[in-house]
Predict the structure.
Amino acid sequence: MSPPAVDLRGLSLAELGRLVAELGEQPFRAQQIYRGLHRRGARTFDELTDLPRALREKLAGRARLAALAIDLAQVSADGTIKYRLRTHDDRFLEAVFMPEKGRNTLCVSSQVGCAMGCTFCRTATMGLIRNLTTSEILDQIYAVERDLAARGLGGAETGSSGPRAGVPHTDRILSNLVFMGMGEPLHNLDNLLPALEHLLAEEGLNLSHRHITVSTSGLVPEIERFGREATVKLAISLNGTTDAQRARLMPVNRKYPLARLLAACRSFPSKIGRRLTFEYVVLEGENDSEGDLDRLARIAKSVPAKVNLIAYNENPGLGFRSPPEARVQAFRAGLEARGVDAFIRKNRGRDIAAACGQLAVEGMGKRKLRVLEVLPS
Ligand code: SAH
Ligand code: SF4
């Protein structure tokens, strides 16, 4: 018999309420299940320890609880940890933990592979294999939290050996999330939006909306929908300052050229005072001229947006070069001099290929990759 189709972790509190009613249980059970899954991070039915065994068994008959397996964890000299996670159908994805003073950030994936075909990005070489479900998006966070606690990186109660069942998220380790791993998050909005709801929910992880950033290559209709339906921060990967140049780097620009993208940015609703960020990967001799600097400053001021500069991490075979550090610093100073807030994104975990744009799962070559499409229609 095939496992039930409904994934318990993907259900909203209201949906859990309906399920519990169908099972003839008391309404308060829905909240208990929700807290068990999202606040305490239970990853199996048995870890829903505050439910009677009979109810756990009934639930297991009606729903499944997909758990990602940690396939590999690589620790960088700078403390960054790159996790390779395996789905129930043997797909692989990556998430990167970046500890910093005062905050711990997890960079998460939204898809296995990516359809967008950016010519400088390693994930693009995988093509799109499939979307992650809402439950899988969330379980990256829950699986990594569990592992970090087992490593003794958690709050007061940690230091135990082996994973603790249902580590309460109240002394959780992760404070910030960035959707900058594999995939184009806005190409998977139907699964992303409910995942964001769970992450922000008071009964769940209760993260602050200021501490979650979603990054997009520039899908205009989806940016508009995200603006209406999400409250978290948005970053746009700009990477080019003219249509011809940006289209060479990011095929999405052929469909949504700069004028359309920037119009969407200008009308992006600033709920909670969220200001847009432009990410700009500096590629030597490609997008780092004085002309680019002038145009980038003009674009950023016109939105207005701040700029995060990322020194390109070279991927062998793709034909682009990292800029010298001094060039990135000069770009930042040039932007500031032109009245734009500009920052340089620190490069983390380069020694384990965990840095921006280096995520792609090795060993997939033998599998027949199914590239579904070049661009979302
Ligand atoms: N797909 C989304 C989010 C994932 S990529 C997006 O493109 O925005 C996260 C960031 O890494 C993007 O800004 C992208 O431009 C950048 N990036 C991709 N490859 C890179 C590389 N090799 N070196 C540095 N940054 C890279
Ligand atoms: Fe996809 Fe982002 Fe890589 Fe482009 S840069 S291929 S959108 S992951």
Remarks:
- Residues 134-150 form the longest helix (17 residues).
- Residues 121 and 357 are 5 Å apart (CA to CA).
- Residues 155-170, 363-377 have pLDDT under 50 and may be disordered.
- The pocket of S-adenosyl-L-homocysteine (ligand 1) is lined by residues 120-121, 180, 184, 215-217, 237, 239, 279, 281, 310, 312-313, 315, 356-358 (CB under 6 Å).
